[in-house]
Design goal:
The complex is a heterodimer of chains A (321) and B (259).
Chain A lengths: L1 H15 L3 H26 L7 H18 L4 H23 L4 H21 L1 H4 L5 E2 L7 H19 L2 H11 L1 H6 L4 H27 L1 E2 L6 H14 L4 H17 L6 H16 L12 H13 L3 H15 L1
Antiparallel strand pairs in A: 1-2
Helix pairs in contact in A: 2-7, 2-8, 2-10, 2-11, 2-12, 3-4, 3-5, 3-10, 4-10, 8-10, 11-12, 14-15
Chain B lengths: L1 H4 L1 E12 L2 E12 L3 E5 L6 H8 L7 E6 L2 E2 L5 H7 L1 E3 L12 H6 L10 H5 L3 H20 L15 H13 L5 E5 L7 H18 L2 E5 L3 H7 L2 E6 L2 E6 L1 H5 L2 H9 L3
The chains are: A mainly alpha (321), B alpha/beta (259).
């Protein structure tokens, strides 16, 4: 099965002329896209901040790796179980912690992420401890990762544009009013948290398959922070913004690779700039749409009365929803 | 007995304390189907506390609240809403960054009966329900007269329109009972009279019962069938607006509150 995907991948890459370095970058982009989409649903749409999503990534990664290596489970099934297991852990954690308000929830997530990392460090018999877990089959080919990212985006999009997504947004906007129109805030938050953890677990599983080797320290607090900053850069409340953010944050360090250690500095500056000049992120509360771009260029042509076009465009979007 | 059957809301000896403060003291009320019942009283009399006890934001310390004959004392807010009690807030609480349409659609969870796989694969049921929800929301928006502003953001609307949008959102729950918290606040005389007509219209069109908190006496006189006057958590008068207005206790409460 893995061979099938990998030979298909070789064929596609050979046909398109994508070298192995570029393939690696694309795989990392896809992995980050999936993790950030999860973060986006939680932070951008529900306004819950979690500094523990790297923990869910590691749960997904280790579960998948252990299933695939020790129990010889088919990698597709292993990924699904890994992601769902991360979701289950989030469901249980959320059941306890989501009754807490904003900051307290954030702190428990932070603590949870660190606990998971330490746990994987100490359970040497199962996870190999800090020496890492080697020998994971290389299932995360470029083709497979891209397919995963597309499916992830599709599912997240449909999820957000249904009553579930509306409920999340209503919590973000005004929790008290949401309850007054029959939205169960607690369960809705927990659903959002579980959804985000499943995505994190999924991304973690792909990460393991790409590097073929995982260590607990790659899922540290810095990784969680990176997920949050990426979501904020891309734009809160926007799935396409999150995808854009994930692409930029993954590709930018590669572009500046020649600058060696200074690239993290530049990355930091870029984040600060975006937060200063565009606090809602690149695509805050808007989705990327071809229609809007066409309308924008039409307006450029007319140079007059952009207001009515913008209004009708919004109307169309509302109708689409 | 036939009268009893028609009771939509009944509160029996409800009490709520905050520390040593008796926000509501031994409050009882009976509201019949189709009535518009006013809740009046000076600031801090406990009117909004009564709303919050009905809608489950607070749990009463004593007493019982019956809705349609069912005990709803201490039921959480989302369940109360699902049972059919819609409300508006004194300080408007809209989903301010969302469009007018989305504000109303969010209140349609009970109509959107599809499940997760159906939503993700856009099954026929999903499409039917979404279409229904959309049309229903548009209809409600048309009834409150905001049809030209469907795509606008809720917080960009003028104040009066925001109040109407809140009512439309509450109506999307198909409520049996509508709780209006100072719907005429900040309105001038003309706007208030418009509101009176509007509330009567929705009462007749949706066959709902309304409990409202209001300060404008002209609104109360023109709109309410009965009213209850509160002062410091205690009921000081019950009756038709005309009866209440001439009650000496009420007059002292209002005038006494001024010193």
């Amino acid at each position: 099965m893995i061979e099938l995907f990998n030979s298909a991948n070789d064929a596609v890459c050979g046909f398109l002329g994508i070298n192995s370095y570029l393939q690696g970058v694309i795989v990392m982009v896809c992995i980050n896209v999936i993790a950030v989409l999860g973060m986006s649903v939680l932070t951008g749409f529900t306004r819950l901040f979690s500094f523990g999503n790297a923990g869910f990534m590691s749960i997904g990664a280790y579960t998948t790796a252990i299933l695939a290596v020790q129990f010889k489970v088919n990698f597709l099934l292993a990924i699904i179980i890994g992601a769902l297991f991360a979701g289950l852990v989030a469901y249980l954690l959320g059941s306890i912690t989501l009754r807490l308000n904003g900051d307290y929830f954030l702190i428990t997530c932070l603590g949870f992420g660190e606990c998971v990392r330490v746990l994987f460090n100490y359970t040497k018999n199962l996870t190999g401890g800090s020496a890492g877990y080697p020998g994971i089959p290389p299932y995360s080919s470029m083709l497979f990762s891209v397919i995963c990212a597309v499916i992830a985006f599709f599912v997240a999009w449909r999820f957000i544009h249904s009553k579930y997504g509306r409920n999340l947004t209503s919590i973000r906007e005004n929790a008290m009013a949401a309850e007054a129109v029959g939205v169960n805030a607690y369960r809705t938050k927990r659903m959002s948290f579980t959804f985000s953890a499943i995505y994190a677990g999924w991304a973690g599983a792909l990460y393991g398959g790409y590097l073929m080797y995982i260590v607990p320290s790659s899922f540290n607090l810095a990784k969680s922070c990176e997920l949050i900053t990426t979501t904020v850069i891309g734009g809160l409340g926007s799935l396409t913004g999150s995808v854009l953010g994930a692409i930029i944050v993954t590709v930018l360090p590669e572009v500046f690779r020649a600058l060696a250690n200074y690239r993290m500095l530049l990355y930091g500056i870029a984040v600060v700039m975006i937060i200063m000049f565009k606090p809602s992120g690149l695509y805050g509360y808007k989705e990327f749409s071809i229609k809007r771009i066409i309308a924008f260029f039409r307006n450029l042509g007319k140079k007059k009365a952009p207001q009515p076009v913008a209004a009708s465009e919004q109307g169309e979007e509302a109708e689409k929803k | 007995m036939s009268e009893e059957k028609n009771l939509v809301l009944e509160m029996i000896n409800v009490e709520k304390h905050f520390g040593g403060v008796h926000a509501i003291d031994d409050f009882s009320v009976k509201i019949e189907k189709g009535q518009i019942h006013g809740l009046i009283g000076p600031n801090g009399a406990g009117k909004t506390t009564i709303f919050n006890n009905i809608t489950g934001i607070y749990k009463p310390d004593a007493g019982k609240i019956l809705f349609d004959g069912k005990d709803i004392t201490g039921t959480p807010p989302h369940k109360v809403a699902q049972l059919g009690i819609g409300r508006t807030f004194q300080n408007i609480r809209l989903f301010s960054n969302l469009s007018v349409l989305d504000n109303v659609i969010i209140a349609s969870n009970l109509d959107a009966t599809y499940n997760m796989p159906q939503a993700i694969f856009h099954s026929k049921k999903y499409k039917d329900r979404e279409k229904f929800v959309q049309e229903k929301a548009m209809e409600l928006i048309r009834i409150v007269g905001l049809q030209d502003r469907v795509a606008e953001r809720a917080n960009s609307l003028p104040y009066g329109h925001q109040r109407k949008l809140e009512i439309a959102r509450a109506l999307a729950l198909d409520p049996k009972l509508l709780l209006l918290d100072e719907p005429a606040a900040g309105m001038n005389a003309e706007e208030s009279m418009e509101l009176v007509e509007f509330v009567k219209e929705i009462r007749d069109q949706f066959h709902i019962t309304i409990l409202m908190i209001e300060h404008h006496m002209d609104v109360v006189t023109n709109l309410c069938d009965y009213c209850t006057v509160l002062n410091f958590g205690k009921t000081i008068a019950v009756g038709t607006p005309a009866e209440v207005k001439s009650n000496p206790d009420v007059i002292t409460a209002y005038l006494g509150g001024a010193d």
